[in-house]
Amino acid sequence: MKWTFLIATAITLVSLDTSAANRRPTLEKSPDVLQPQQLRKSLARSAMGPQLASAMVTAAAAPTADEVGDADSFGKNVTWLGLAQTLAVTIQDDCSGSDPTVERCIVQQPAPLATNFNESGLAAMNLPAKATKDLMCFTFTPFIDLSWANFTATQQTASFSAFAVITIDNAVLDDPTLIDPNTGAPFNGSLTVSLSSWHHRQSLDPGQFQDEDSIHTRSCIAGLISKSALTASYGLSDTLATQFFKKPMTIHFGARGSVQMQQFAQYFYGIRLFGD
Fold first, then answer.
1. Given a cut of 80, is residue 14 above it in pLDDT?
2. Are residues 203 and 153 in the same domain?
3. Do residues 8 and 49 share a domain?
4. Residue 121 has pLDDT above 60, yes or no
């Protein structure tokens, strides 16, 4: 029985070696293998077993925030979420002929006073549950049309400043014990972020007129909202931040700003959202 065991073991070893030898030349001749010498590492790894190899791949594919900045979204595919364009905010002398389905018209203050605006509900987007996993990103394009005019007898400073104001409704934020650190009050079901559009100042001499348009695009960096922002900036636990992205969301788009020494001003924006 002793010799029988040794012979059986030897046969098994030969069988394994023969299998590997038969496999390797076939793979090395494949046009998909650009550097055959690397293949031996793959074969050696397979001998460790599929579970251990899988664990090594998983560990290698999980960098830290220090390494990549946003570890939650690392390696994930982009998911397109939708597109919105706001109603225009129009500032002029007379709003009697304005169409409310196209614009929000505001009667401007007499020069040199500034006209302020803060308009909500200019557009909305409804996202289903689990639309994105850890991140909501954006591509944002404001459209600005200005006609500067100085009808006064002295030099004046013309200025324009605008922000997109974006409110996200989410059921996770309904908990009255959750406090928004930016306001010191409960979230009451939503949080608000803003995106800077354009800021401009210049001098206008008496009787000076000037038309100016601005169309530019800015894109996502930290994102409109992310799992890391919910924990670091809004104080949510990791569990609640994960649940946040599993809930349906309604996104409301508004605008606020100020304009001074204009004869006419108009501001609106388009925004496309995407996630991971």
1. no
2. yes
3. yes
4. yes
Domain membership of residue 233 as a residue range: 67-275
- In total, how many domains does the chain have? 2
Last-in-domain residue among 43, 61, 79: 61
Structure tokens, 223: 């994102």
Find where tokens 């570890």 sit: 71
Q: What is the mean pLDDT of the chain?
A: 83
Indicate the residue among 12, 31, 61 that finishes a domain: 61
Q: What angle do CA 149, 253, 130 make, to 5 degrees?
A: 155
Asked if residue 128 has a cis previous peptide bond (ω within 30° of 0), the answer is: no
Query: ∠ CA(124), CA(128), CA(130), 5° rounding?
Result: 130
Asked whether residue 105 falls in the same domain as residue 199, the answer is: yes
Residues for the chain: how many in total? 276
Pairing of strands 156-170, 249-260: antiparallel
CA–CA gap between residue 250 and residue 78 (Å, rounded): 20
DSSP 229: H
Quote the pLDDT of residue 72: 75
Q: Is the pLDDT of residue 3 over 60?
A: no
Which DSSP state fits 183?
A: T
Q: What is the pLDDT of residues 29-41, one digit of tens each?
A: 433 333 444 444 4
